[in-house]
Amino acid sequence: MLIVSIWDKLVGQKEVVEELRQYAINRERLANSWLFTGAPGSGRSVAAELFAQTLLCEVSGGKGEPCGECEQCRMVEARTHPDVMFVKTNQKQYKVDDIRSKVMPIANLTPKIGKYRIIYIEDADRLRQESQNSLLKYFEEPEPLTIWILSCPNRGDVLPTIQSRARIVNLKIPSDLDVEMSLKQDGIEQKKAQDVSRLAAGHIGLAKLWANDEEQLKLRLRNSAIALGVHKTVDAVLFAEEVDKEADRLAEEKVQAEIKKDELLLRKELGLGENDKISKEFQSFFKSPNKDDLKRMINRSKQDYIDIILQEILMVYRDITLIQSQGKEELVYNQFDLDLIKKYSLALTKKEVEMRIEKIEEARKRILTNASLKLILESMFCSLLLPTRVLS
Length: 392
Ligand SMILES: [Zn+2]
Description:
Elements: H1 14-25, E1 33-37, H2 44-56, H3 71-77, E2 84-87, H4 96-107, E3 117-121, H5 129-140, E4 146-152, H6 160-165, E5 167-170, H7 176-185, H8 190-200, H9 204-212, H10 214-227, H11 233-269, H12 291-326, H13 338-347, H14 350-366, H15 373-383, H16 388-391
Parallel strand pairs: 1-4, 1-5, 2-3, 3-4
Helix pairs in contact: 1-2, 2-3, 4-5, 7-8, 8-9, 9-10, 10-12, 11-12, 11-15, 12-13, 12-14, 14-15
This protein binds zinc ion.
């Protein structure tokens, strides 16, 4: 379907879009530092990308609207614009040294080809206090052509000194209906758009992924099926092993893909092709992580992955609670498994559901410790065993 405005990519954020457009039109009021806040999935990085495009677009940027097609727009989208830096990490925290050596040196440089230099730092809540303090000086005495955009879930996630110097833009969690409309605009049929939006609970990226990728949707639903299918202890052990193995595989894949992507980006920045030999002067830039770092990255990614599964399982029991307490089927997040959820809401007592929710929450906390992930999963799945009276 026809996209009316590139800003439509930012779903369910009418006020934010209007605010950013106005600043792009009246640039004398343009702030140098911004803080985009919003829950994961609300579209913080999409907002940053579109804002960067609008500020740099040569065709219609002055009207508050990126054209999406000029060289500037395309380079921003492809993350190859020499004046636009998207900074993100898959670690718990940004390394102080990375911020000092990779971000700060470019902060005050004049833009090469665009009107501004734009630096976007995703998950600024992962910046150590030391890094935040060292960035503060750029916000206090801003270089007129440098625009900083920091993003984090809540404004309180960064130091008050940063909050007070930044213009704060709050992204809401998009409503199910907004997400549904956006999916329909992309050509997804009504029923699927509706069910997938409900399942994603306001996370636009997930909704799109599940609407367009049947395998991913199946994978997502498999986890709820697991939660509702633990009948015997031997099931619990098997499921724990299966989830643990899969998490290992996905974590490893994800980390390797990210390392590869970083390398490609760096090559681009240095003007090197994918297979060009790296000359001596650049070799220090291409240090691959050592064994310990790699292990840490994979483990961190595995924890994330398992936490997502636990949240999905949690959602099943929240759905059961919804039916038990309000009896309203349309409130259920997982419409795909509605029949099973209804069955369980009758079979389990409220107390039994409550206890299961507690056990899952407990497991979510424990995965952040150094305990064996497989054992945590095993003990959690055992607590989800169905009472024998339900099975008979
Ligand atoms: Zn453009």
